[in-house]
Amino acid sequence: MSKKKAAILGATGAAGQQFVEALKDHPWFEIAGLYASERSEGKPYGVAAKWFTSSPLQEDIAAMTVGNVEKAIHDVDQYDLFFSALPSGLSKEVEGLFAEHKPVISTASGYRYEDDVPILVPEVNAPHSELIKIQQEKRGWKGFVVPGPNCTTMGLIISLKPIYEKFGVKSVFMTSMQALSGAGYPGHSSLDIVDNMIPFIAKEEGKVVIETVKTLGAYDQGSIQNAGFPVSCTCTRVAVIDGHMLSIFVQTEKPCTPDDLKAAFVEFNDSCRKEFGDLPSSPKDAIVVKNEENRPQPRLDREIGDGMSTVVGRIRQDEVYGQHGIKYVALSHNTKRGAAKGELMAAEYLMTQGYF
Amino acid sequence: MSKKKAAILGATGAAGQQFVEALKDHPWFEIAGLYASERSEGKPYGVAAKWFTSSPLQEDIAAMTVGNVEKAIHDVDQYDLFFSALPSGLSKEVEGLFAEHKPVISTASGYRYEDDVPILVPEVNAPHSELIKIQQEKRGWKGFVVPGPNCTTMGLIISLKPIYEKFGVKSVFMTSMQALSGAGYPGHSSLDIVDNMIPFIAKEEGKVVIETVKTLGAYDQGSIQNAGFPVSCTCTRVAVIDGHMLSIFVQTEKPCTPDDLKAAFVEFNDSCRKEFGDLPSSPKDAIVVKNEENRPQPRLDREIGDGMSTVVGRIRQDEVYGQHGIKYVALSHNTKRGAAKGELMAAEYLMTQGYF
Amino acid sequence: MSKKKAAILGATGAAGQQFVEALKDHPWFEIAGLYASERSEGKPYGVAAKWFTSSPLQEDIAAMTVGNVEKAIHDVDQYDLFFSALPSGLSKEVEGLFAEHKPVISTASGYRYEDDVPILVPEVNAPHSELIKIQQEKRGWKGFVVPGPNCTTMGLIISLKPIYEKFGVKSVFMTSMQALSGAGYPGHSSLDIVDNMIPFIAKEEGKVVIETVKTLGAYDQGSIQNAGFPVSCTCTRVAVIDGHMLSIFVQTEKPCTPDDLKAAFVEFNDSCRKEFGDLPSSPKDAIVVKNEENRPQPRLDREIGDGMSTVVGRIRQDEVYGQHGIKYVALSHNTKRGAAKGELMAAEYLMTQGYF
Amino acid sequence: MSKKKAAILGATGAAGQQFVEALKDHPWFEIAGLYASERSEGKPYGVAAKWFTSSPLQEDIAAMTVGNVEKAIHDVDQYDLFFSALPSGLSKEVEGLFAEHKPVISTASGYRYEDDVPILVPEVNAPHSELIKIQQEKRGWKGFVVPGPNCTTMGLIISLKPIYEKFGVKSVFMTSMQALSGAGYPGHSSLDIVDNMIPFIAKEEGKVVIETVKTLGAYDQGSIQNAGFPVSCTCTRVAVIDGHMLSIFVQTEKPCTPDDLKAAFVEFNDSCRKEFGDLPSSPKDAIVVKNEENRPQPRLDREIGDGMSTVVGRIRQDEVYGQHGIKYVALSHNTKRGAAKGELMAAEYLMTQGYF
């Protein structure tokens, strides 16, 4: 099988660089085009992108010439699909232009809240991919747009999925302690984060609330019925490079003890392995439970499953709801699972379903 | 009025140093004795204590000779009261010996959970001081032990007090992001905290659960009736030197909007000012509300009210309970309000009530 | 004596805020005007300035209306002197306009390298103030411009001064480990500084090289003869909020042992106390020597002398030059001694010399 | 070729864990035994070692039973060689016992300063391995001890080697900014390193001074003639997890411009590749020069060459010595190149020379 040709839109920014890294040596997709703003046009990628991840940039990619994203539409036929790492403001307008012709897999939020657009996370809502046909019919597109969720939503919904399926969810309280890379580069000033933390992330909480119930909702006859429980959260920023930590309290419909939950996670992992285990970016375990009392920790655990596992710890019965309440912490790698690499896994899933 | 003579037990450790700092130029108490372990015996305090707060140690205190805490009981008549910063393990045994003779005000947890011992925070439960008489009768002591709460409990109960009084509390979910100084010195390894955080603090959550309902409980005919709501929390450690941040979700009995809460805080401050405004360590405002969306922040706000105010921000209606739910973040200076300086204010209150 | 009326140019930025803080309750000068860019015009200072130092802004200053620096020249007669915290790019042009009429004391680099402009640090080169007359004559100004040195140069020249005077200096090697606040706000990205350091600071090394020999030079008949030794340095940035640390190796002309150096520092302090001890911002000791092997440390020692002392430690004989080589580390508070408060002390000195 | 059986002494500590990691999938050596203190005896390695590097521990190694290092001598015949990560205090005594029988490659300092012991770094002093025979004769050992240098010395001597060879060295001034992992675990308290740095590392400077001239010395008729130049250094600790940064000033005998130095590095790399390129742990480039003005940086560059390259930047002519002075910064991965993986490369070299 020859590899599918992929172009990256918004290739020089933080999210774009993560697509470049995620696609390194990928067996199914190859980077065939790199597009960014006019400023980068005509420059070698290695010059246009201020590369700041710790694994060095491959030389062949560094030598590729960056194109202007505003003219990229002229090259649309050269590619099989597009990965979009565009800024949210641009994504709505630009991604639609490409979706007329080709599939667009996106980390941006522009289309997330449209009725005919799935926020696709294979382990959570693979059947939502059915919406793609609706989207194409309704909009007259040959391609489509499929975004992933916000990086904070990701760790929440993957860990909630087996709880929701098995025990039912009545309400969720969540406090996040998010990594600096989630704010892009340069993001926060160093003066705001040394000996400090910030109890606020613009627009984040609203995204989590909406995306959680949409992604956990049911696909039914052409639309998604949101999951029927409320979510309340407070999002904060701490002095960590990568890895969002979530402190989660769940009120369940049926009783759920810590042992019940661990068993549900094991079952969930088995099922994910069966359904998605052949996807190149799929981790061995969707959820890894740490039993040490002081884990997970971002620096030590974020790379588990090559940054694609959700790492859960501190599973305890809750004091408020008793056997109908469970609490735990979850760690999700925000620039891998919660961004480009997570979207890549969604693309891999769509590939197996014949969408490219 | 001549100053009361105070001795500090456990004077060389982190908590002891905070008593030394809090008592600097105090109008009512003077440091008349400093006691620590045998290792420090006979040394000048400036030599025995590895001083690590940023405000320099006073020269006259540095020159005082440190006594052995195991022999301190022989000097008991030289002092009017004792401030104890002993390790929790020692505090139960040692503080009792001194309390037979003199008042002991303590940051340690040894006596906190005894039925006849108040965990005293003037703004929260001044009437609990009535328990002192019960304690003296029951134990045959001329003195008494009065501890303060855990440093994490402090910010929670001060901010809950006006909610509990005015709207009633049905349940509380709390996630803390605590400062490094809360672990004492050396506390956490630097390798555990650079580019990292730790979602666990030994024994902390249990303390918060018990102390919250005890301190907010009602004194009634010689005993305390615990407040009747459950508390569920997850305590974490982040890379901040001083200042515990709490993310709090409260289910109330009566409706409570953000404006209602702000009004309740104003009223609470007025009442605290009236009752405790003359105590030297009392802050101008017990609770300071920050309206900027990204505050409070530890480095910028922990020193408000000389580290004695609880700084609240991000007051929002909650998605789960609607008008019966309120959420906010609270910042409390863990080595000032939550430790020695907080206990000092309790001692000041007891002074005005004639206990020394 | 009524206080001199001072206006601050560039009042809302980081350096401007430091002037506001340094002038708090000053016995000789009062803040009578605050000027910033057009964007801040007409706003209360508390709104226009994103205040980010940990000591809270005074309410009366917060209420002052900010003027437009471009129109400030019309108000020039209302003030006795100006403190300039303008960006370097603007300082050359703007400060000259004001200096036609009134004294301008500046933290900016615009005029530092002019032949007729002293870089004034009282303890180092008080006689350089003679240049002011030359400057006024040559330029036809009624006022004048007096800048201070770069914040990195400050700790170097204060610690070198007694060495230069007593032992002679043949060469200096210096590596700095500078604080984040030296880059202004927002300065470095948090992603560049967590688990990282940066071995480069734009233009800094050139400034240190030139300013060191100019400030230590001799005033002679209307001009300054630069000190005759070379300086070689490498400037780096580390994850510290405030306080520049310098690792210094000095080749001396005469033999200089560690004890010789300590004695020279004592003598220097005595002389500074005699000459400048009455200036309100003068520290008790110009140089504080720490004998503990692991000091000075920024967080523990930067506030010594209210941030105005240079704190020296690790004084050792050098392996390369033997008795003609001495090495040590020096810590200087970059936003106090090395910026506004340092300039304020220069202004105080000029006040005693009748310049305002 | 069957793999050589290696045992690790001191396997559970930080340095021991680094040997475990460095030996993962090694083509020439296999981990056949793991020994630690009595406390770990009989436990699975995964339980005995608090694993804290970010790449997860291999399951087969985790399952190996840890032996007691005090009894390990009874197993000496089961192994072909020993890697020692013992604490310095123990290393002198214990390593000698094993060296009677088998080769011991060590990160510890116990034997470094013995006349008949080479501090072996292949690129710097491969001929020093001749000393092994002398050592065996003199001591009557069948095995031998070969330690590597201190982790700070490593980056210095690799970058100095081509300068010394090509231009001659008259003196060196060096200031280090060292990573936290260099202090082992737990090492520094987090309270000492957040918003702080420490200008002192116990015993480090003396080691650098001695080891630099010994490793760069010439092997001549059974002994090493130390290199004939003085080294003066100041060692400091900064808030970085891994990667020691060195600010180096070199006075050369012959003129050396930045371009000369870059050319010398290229030549050196070629020569290293020819001589050592076949060693499994040898990096593609011994020295990588970064031309960006703000590099190298620890977080971005420490993994270059899988942590085995020395990364040099900021090459400039020096102001003190002119064309006879050169300055630069060098970054060396202290727990890879400067510890176990560096020693492993020495072992690989000795393997090619027939020593095992």
Largest interface: A-B, 43 and 43 residues
Summarize the main sheet of chain A. 6 strands, parallel
Q: Taking strands numbered 1, 2, ... along the chain, how are they ordered across the largest sheet of chain A?
A: 3-2-1-4-5-6
Number of helices of chain A: 11
CATH hierarchy: architecture of the largest domain in chain A: 2-Layer Sandwich
Straight-line N-to-C gap of chain A: 13 Å
User: Total strand count of chain A, please?
Assistant: 14
Counting structural domains of chain A, the number is 2
Rounded to the nearest angstrom, the radius of gyration of chain A is 20 Å
Q: State the assembly state of the protein chains.
A: homotetramer
**Strand portion of chain A:** 15-25%
Tell me the CATH topology of the largest domain in chain A.
Dihydrodipicolinate Reductase, domain 2
SSE series of chain A: EHEHHEEHEHHEHEHEEEEHEHEEH
pLDDT < 50 stretches of chain A = none
Q: Can you give the helix content of chain A as a percent range?
A: 25-40%
Category from helices, strands and their pairing of chain A: alpha/beta
Shape of chain A: globular
**What's the average pLDDT of chain A?**
96
In the CATH hierarchy, what is the class of the largest domain in chain A?
Alpha Beta
CATH homology-level superfamily of the largest domain in chain A: Dihydrodipicolinate Reductase, domain 2
